[in-house]
TrEMBL record:
Protein name: Flagellar protein FliL
Protein's UniProt keywords contain Zinc-finger: no
GO cellular component: bacterial-type flagellum basal body; plasma membrane
Membrane topology: Single-pass membrane protein
Keyword presence, Transmembrane: yes
BP-aspect Gene Ontology terms: bacterial-type flagellum-dependent swarming motility; chemotaxis
Family the entry assigns: Belongs to the FliL family.
PANTHER family registered for this protein in UniProt: FLAGELLAR PROTEIN FLIL
Signal peptide: none
Amino acid sequence: MTDSAKSRSGKRKLLILMVVIVALIGCGVAGYTVWKRMKAPADPTAVAKHQPPAIPVFFALDTFTVNLINPDNDPDRVLYVGFTLRLPDEETRRRMSDYLPEIRSRLLLLLSRQTAASLASEHGKEQLVTQIKQTLAPQLVQGQPQQAVTDVLFTAFILR
């Protein structure tokens, strides 16, 4: 063999070795990238979608029985209603429990101002839900935050 053949064969071996090393490094980088992508979520909103919703906080109130306003002064117009309040957090439930007599008083005054005709329709009941939220919203004691009632759920509703 001549010197030029030996040098070509040595260069060829070196070239093949370099190609193999570059290919191994490329495969390693690609494998690491795939592994990182599989480990991390695709987007941050996907993480939020997979978290279970917060446990709801409910505050059940005893039923209310009130005489309703009616134009013909019929004393038999009575509303028997029970509902549960959905609250945003446990702190609001604790505060409402502490001031339960004031909560019940506000609700009794509100319910006694209703008329049988307005409560007979579904729209009237929806308006009552809105009014209950507004009645309970003001703070109970100076310096405390306002109450937030997420929803009012009727558990009993008898209009007689």
